[in-house]
């Protein structure tokens, strides 16, 4: 039953010209959708859509802070904007990532060398950030995200980490804050995501930094490890 709920990334052979998948995981889209770009929606867009819509219950008019403006974070900013966010904040240490976030409409904060960044964010937003997403996966970003949100605020941890996180327990009770994890996306939400793609609201030219041919997939991984990919990269499959 779990596989029906979540499309899981556990099938070998994706870096190939052909790959078979269960029919229940295939969703029709209008021909106007550019599949060479929309292919990243099955991870970056869908993961952040689920986190925002269901895990933290974002509402139109909410202000949203995204920690980490890589491929996942840029998608989160884009999705939050399309879901009606009033204000977007992007936090990262890389200038190129922050510039991409600015193009999506976020107010950007370079966190390099800064401690207790949440104080700056609270001042900047008038303590108005209700939703925060951690798209990094480090103890410090999880802690900053939790401390950033206002009373009644919610945090979704999307970045993976085994770090031990220290949070002020009084904020769970006194400030009624909530924090939880978010992983993948239930397939029942994919029809909604397809409509989002068909509407044209996802700026793939910002989300996608590079294209590679299938024969160069090893170089793509090297570039990713070296930090040479700002958002997402796409492997072109020959027909």
Secondary structure elements and pairings:
Elements: H1 2-5, H2 35-38, H3 44-55, E1 63-67, H4 71-82, E2 87-92, H5 95-104, E3 107-110, H6 117-125, E4 129-134, H7 139-148, E5 154-157, H8 170-173, E6 178-181, H9 190-199, H10 204-207, E7 208-213, H11 217-225, E8 232-236
Parallel strand pairs: 1-2, 1-4, 2-3, 4-5, 5-6, 7-8
Account of the protein in words:
There is one protein chain. This protein has 239 residues and is an alpha/beta fold. It contains eleven helices and eight strands. The strands form two sheets. It has a six-stranded parallel sheet, sandwiched between helices. Helix 3 (44-55) packs across helix 4 and helix 6 packs parallel to helix 7. The protein starts with a helix and ends with a strand.
**Count of β-strands:** 8
Terminal CA distance reads 34 Å
- The DSSP helix count reads 11
Question: Order of helices and strands, N to C?
Answer: HHHEHEHEHEHEHEHHEHE
Structural class: alpha/beta
Strand composition percent:
15-25%
Instruction: Please give the order of strands in the largest beta sheet.
Output: 3-2-1-4-5-6
Helicity, as a percent range: 25-40%
The biggest beta sheet is recorded as:
6 strands, parallel
């Amino acid at each position: 039953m779990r596989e029906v709920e979540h499309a899981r990334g556990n099938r070998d052979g994706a870096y190939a010209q052909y790959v078979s998948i269960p029919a229940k995981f295939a969703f029709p889209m209008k021909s106007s959708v550019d599949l060479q770009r929309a292919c990243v929606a099955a991870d970056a867009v869908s993961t952040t859509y689920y986190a925002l819509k269901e895990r933290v219950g974002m509402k139109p008019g909410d202000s949203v802070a995204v920690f980490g403006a890589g491929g996942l974070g840029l998608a989160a900013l884009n999705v939050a904007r399309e879901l009606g966010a009033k204000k977007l904040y992007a936090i990262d240490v890389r200038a190129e990532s922050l510039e991409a976030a600015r193009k999506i409409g976020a107010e950007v904060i370079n966190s390099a060398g800064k401690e207790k960044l949440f104080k700056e964010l609270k001042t900047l937003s008038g303590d108005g950030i209700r939703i925060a997403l951690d798209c990094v996966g480090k103890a410090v970003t999880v802690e900053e995200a939790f401390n950033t949100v206002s009373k009644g605020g919610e945090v979704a941890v999307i970045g993976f980490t085994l770090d031990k996180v220290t949070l002020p327990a009084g904020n769970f009770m006194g400030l009624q804050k909530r924090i939880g994890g978010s992983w993948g996306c239930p397939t029942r939400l994919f029809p909604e995501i397809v409509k989002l793609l068909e509407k044209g609201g996802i700026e793939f030219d910002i989300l996608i930094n590079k294209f590679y041919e299938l024969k160069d997939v090893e170089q793509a991984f090297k570039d990713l490890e070296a930090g040479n990919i700002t958002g997402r990269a796409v492997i072109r499959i020959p027909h």
